[in-house]
Amino acid sequence: MGLFGRVSTAMITPFDAKGHIDFPKTTQLINHLLENGTDSLVVAGTTGESPTLSKQEKIALFKHVVKVVEKRVPIIAGTGSYNTYESIELTKQAELAGVDAVMVVGPYYNKPNQEGLFQHIKAVAESTKLPVMIYNIPGRSVVNIEPDTIIRLSEIENIVAVKEASGNLNNITKIIASTPDDFYVYSGDDGLTLPLLSVGGTGIISVASHIIGKEMKEMVNSFLAGNIEEASKMHQQLLPLMLALFKAPNPVPVKTALQLKGFDVGSVRLPLVPLTEEERKELAEYL
User: What digits encode the pLDDT tens for the residues 84-95?
Assistant: First the structure.
């Protein structure tokens, strides 16, 4: 099952008309997600527009989510950045806010080598008692945390999981095969949920679960119950929508999809921009 369940949602951050965090909408969103199959929440990750949230906003968001969730599911706070010192400081603040775990992304922009990646994540892990999830997303951070580095990091007691968004199933299989059974490997790509489960992965940290949470959970449960054919059919049906949610930079499409379904979570912050009218129509057809 993993510490964080099978379907975790990388939660968007709702904004009001002035572009501030909309806390009442955040409360509604949390309850919507928990009613629709989410086993845990990732707060202030990529989908939460973490690069445009200030440190103060992130801490306020962590505190609010902890208060609303009331221990119903684990909360994983995105505290990593390209600055090790600041990542440690935010991790300490997240721990004080009462979150259950932290997620540390591979440092972006400054392009450390594998030893630098190892030392960065190790330093953050050593600064907290909380469980730590590594986040490997080379498409955004430019550097890939290689399997050997992740395997090495898995030996550190409180580093318990990785969100793998490299899309490389060979690397992911190597990580699963070479880490302890209580080290959990999650897909960071909705479209690879079923393939990752088939090679022994734990589950998905999902964007699509904002819209199709129950269906995602059903697909995972079908696979785990041995109904492989049924799970495959569901994967085939859900894949076009999963891909449609990434036809523009995340989280622009998923925020739009929530609006189209009558749940207005506000727009995105610059440098992201809303979908064009044509893109909106195309997304509406998938929905």
Answer: 999 999 999 999
